[in-house]
């Protein structure tokens, strides 16, 4: 604290003052038993879990210099024990298995003495004494050992159980011990520990719980690399490494406004982050736990642990990290009172006995006297100093204790010896010192830049990486290596052999033939042959001819081979035909090869699903062969077995080692029986195999069968191997060989000794000529034991990927540790250096998965499984978020396997399903083919465990339903639905299917309460016990202090609140209302609101105890909650709080539009509702049609009922509720938009309101944000009532209190100034509607007038573009201005500018001075003004209307605006005929005068208007990022862009097409027909709702219909035909847009709808100028001459569409219609669009997206 600045001290004091007022502890009444404190309870439980250990023995050992009387010391100790009841406590177990405290009246303490010859012997005596355990029941729980070294020199050890003491308590004990010896009597403690325990148990810690839940939500475990696998149950045997640091953090801490502790914590977190690769974890920090002054002199277990969460995200500088640490530490200190055991409970940490909960490492900076190097004791000449002694205990993985001393720090790193070696601890301590020194020297360094390695250690690691060059082979080319006695058999296969002489002759002849066919230096030549000696002939022949061979295994799929041939550019392939009748004696010409020429191209799997070719040169293969021959000590003339195809470089080792040493190569088919293979394998000297393939052969051959191991050397490679399995192989030498194809076969080797300590077999050291690095993310060498990525170097690397330079550059990097110009290959493999210098492979990055938040290495589980006696081979894979084990061997029962694994693995690593196979599927090169592993079958997860067959017909029927829904073969009578994998959505399916099985309806609540088949059958068969109860308790039966009653949304079952019930504190009960007509599975009628509310009130009064809160969600839930609360209060039952989520009161005033809107609601199809539910985040995929229909029917009715209820309630003056109403809203929920104001509407019902916001939440947050909702409903009201809202107002939380309001206070219930009203809205809307109609008339008439006046289609088109483009360009600016400034003023400016523009145009026209060029700027100005006017008007609507009527107001606007758009063309044409353009301008100017007056005369309320969440430009940019990043949406965008180019001109050219042969009034009629098409299309979408699934196909088919009507429009010079075409075009286009809208609803998360729609609008707008301004006029000028009476097409196409004026335009319709049809047909064939509905998944629920956003944001913080 002394290092804190004044500001920081004030901040900490302020935070500490936030704790509850002045708190004191009073002594408990005499005779009152002392309870256990929460901390004691936890330690007692842990003692019962692992009894007989010294884990919780707390020692203090000091050296005492000076005279010391042993008898006086013993007397003083007993006196100290008498003074402190904690030291007289014992703990026994009651018959009920609970702990009970007994306090002895007599002061007992064991006091021992001994003599020692010196400090070492004394230390041995102390450490031996520390191995003794305490008897908790018998006591005493404190003891002392006094060791006499010499007169005046003693060692004193005090030890006590942690149940009764802590480190601070030993300070008190030591001080009082010497005071009493000196004859002084210390003042008695103000209270005793039992008083503190009683006080502590009465505290609820609500504020601290809320804080720590928020701060530690989702904190992952710290997964440090260990020297040994983590045992399933972690012991506590420990050791300590001591070290000194010559660095003092005090000065730098003071300069940074921090404390020394904060500095060392930041450094320690930085170190742990580098070791683990994590940016998020927690470090434990002990704190005294004595926040009250009366506790300062009390002995007992007070110490608490604070979890300091690390935030290393973004690679901050050390200074930035220190700021983060300081802020979090201050927050932690302000919330330090929550006991750690309570924190563990509140976080609901999953039980994992393999590690400590929440924190796995501890850090303490200590400066109390007994820990310092010297301290004068209170006795007259005795001095105390520290005396180090090993307790041999580690409660955590690591604990770092630092002690301040002059000039630096002393350190003790205690480590669990089951995990770490002494050398690892020593290195970690060294690295900590490196980090701390560097950080203090330059705090601007980023964490990744802080050095870990000292220069000597860096050189040591780099020395591990290198290997000397191999002895040269004396050859430069690969084929020149082949040498053996001419008569010796070189290759043999299936009884056919070739000697070395025959091999040389045939390969020479084939090489000559290949050269004759065109093979030259560098040609890639395919080899497609079955296993035979000719395979060797072909390989050598291609090399001799100068080519590079490309192996093509005939067993591979044809399409893969075809890709390889095309990708490699293979022109010639060696087949059996080419090898027939080779002429003897031919010698190939010298192709002039060097070592830099290609030797072969081998294809490996690619991430895109297509293999990639790795091109390897002669020199690299020769370097490899030289190194591997030298390392393996291969002898000449041996016998070799090759079971792999040469399509994989795995076989290169055996193939060339055999031929270069004069050996005999046996080519074997690996698919043959093991017994047959063993005949050859047992007689060979050298074999290379993958562990999985070899294990399958050994298992198949059996223990009594023939051996399959070679005589001399077995090389393992291709995949990781278990050390135990490899060590069990007897006979030959066994070598583990590692390396990818890109590094030419293999790079490292390790010879198996059978004494390896690592679970996974090491991969050893680099071969001669190779290099292997383990590098961190910055490319720096990782220290010994620290995980990094393996990089390989040396003159061994392939040239690169054939034809893929970008990928080559990405994976083949410059080698900063090699010679200039050298490269290294980034493998993607994880590994670490062992202290021995061996490299350990730790799996692929892509085999590291996350299960329930834990990082899991699949290989670790596999290795443990293979240790089971019945399991021969094991592969573990993640399928559907479940671990699945695939096993071979003798079938063991699932319970047996689970018990076995539970003893060896943490619970989260135990697979959920087990699949037994006859053999594992292998790829051709012998590795396990994970893609070929079958999906888990339909058997019960525990097929052999406790199956009880159903007995009755009803049980059988229910079991069959469960089996069908859960996709299992059978279900037993005692099986639990949810343990079998069931969840709430599957429960809904079960309920629906049970309707056909049970006579008595079964509800989803029944299934939650009766979870086995037998229990549910008993429930279904029970006699009807009268009307069912509406309240269902979802929490277990238990003692409660408060109750919550919840009402679901319309169509929701009572079971939707199960997640909330599970998240509530243990002293809360949750009762959920099963609303009649809403419960899934019950075919019952809905009941009136009043009747349901009455029934709920009766049940609450009868059955629901304790303080009561209510929660209701959305329309139905909110309405029923309000009515239940009103009736409860009327009955005299108080309600603590009324929480209303996902909705505000909405009402509908009676207007002339009401019947029309009611009709629209009735016509709206279920599909429209279903799409809206999906968009809002409800998952409907697993609901059957009946369930979905019931939900939608109930939501319809519930919405109508709620609307009627609140309309009536707001028309009355109801009796105010005494309970406060707290609105709970999702930040992203459109249904609760304007929540900043709308919560005030509840003042109509209550005097106190508030609103709580869930960050990033959507509408259906009950399921996905249940934990936060539980915090809100149990804590928000209490915090508000107590005035403790500062913590929950923090916007950095995942939820926050936005505002509170009390009627009659300074907080306004309604905004100041005029109030929103429908009348005020109507006045403004009327003026705007008139002006919009007027301007629409002008926009329609001006281009028409220009066309009639000039006869120029170019002018007509250009004016249409000018009327559109300026407004489009200015829209982002207009939107920003409307969002930021007074909307009324913007509307006035827009109205004035638009009206003024029309007036100017009119004046020019009326005075006869108009010229065509005048129209251009006037139209542009009008386009801009109208954009401002319309955007401001749309944003002002919510400002003018009471927001409960907003839905109604928007509906009225849509109807009126749609009607206006329908009649405008007809009216405009009529007015053009009657009064001309001059008269229309008069009407338009007058309309704007009316609009201006209406806005001027109406005052706007100071209420919220509509505002974009993000700017239009950002919407478009983010929409582009979202859409372009997904292949399906990218294809859809391109489709619409192409479509609009051809479609937009056709809508523009309708007027010229009609005027080519008809009159102006006919133009109006055709336009009216188009408007009718739009109207009918919209009505069709309302009634239909679009396709249920194949929506993109629906868009494409509707586009074909659109093309057909475009074709019809141009076929005949007939007004009726054109009107039909215009009608159909508009109808079809409306359907295209409508179905597209459903795609957005269903496929795009709701929060991104605006972005994607904005992008598509941009695409449409951007193509309109092209269509209008270019395609339309210039296309017409192209087509019109063709259809002139004497035109080129007059006698052909003219016979169909006619000839003369306007028929070129008609022909353009025909051509463009065909183009549109072609676009649609091509789209139906293009996979990305044809498969769009299948390949593009439905959007995840919006609340899942929100939850991920919150987690990412929390991680960044």
TrEMBL record:
Keyword Cell membrane: no
Family matches, as CDD domains: A_NRPS (cd05930), LCL_NRPS-like (cd19531), MFS_MefA_like (cd06173)
Domain Carrier: start-end pairs: 949-1024
Ranges annotated as spanning the membrane: 1321-1347, 1353-1374, 1418-1441, 1462-1481, 1487-1506, 1533-1560, 1566-1587, 1594-1611, 1617-1640, 1652-1675, 1706-1724
Keywords linked to the UniProt accession: Membrane, Phosphopantetheine, Phosphoprotein, Transmembrane, Transmembrane helix
Gene3D superfamilies, sorted: 3.30.300.30, ACP-like (1.10.1200.10), alpha/beta hydrolase (3.40.50.1820), Chloramphenicol acetyltransferase-like domain (3.30.559.10), MFS general substrate transporter like domains (1.20.1250.20), N-terminal domain of ligase-like (3.40.50.12780), Nonribosomal peptide synthetase, condensation domain (3.30.559.30)
Transmembrane in keyword set: yes
Cofactor: pantetheine 4'-phosphate
InterPro entries membership: AA_adenyl_dom, AB_hydrolase_fold, ACP-like_sf, AMP-bd_C, AMP-bd_C_sf, AMP-binding_CS, AMP-dep_synth/lig_dom, ANL_N_sf
Pfam families assigned to the protein according to its UniProt record, in alphabetical order: AMP-binding, AMP-binding_C, Condensation, MFS_1, PP-binding, Thioesterase
PANTHER family: FATTY ACID SYNTHASE, NONRIBOSOMAL PEPTIDE SYNTHETASE
Record's protein name: Carrier domain-containing protein
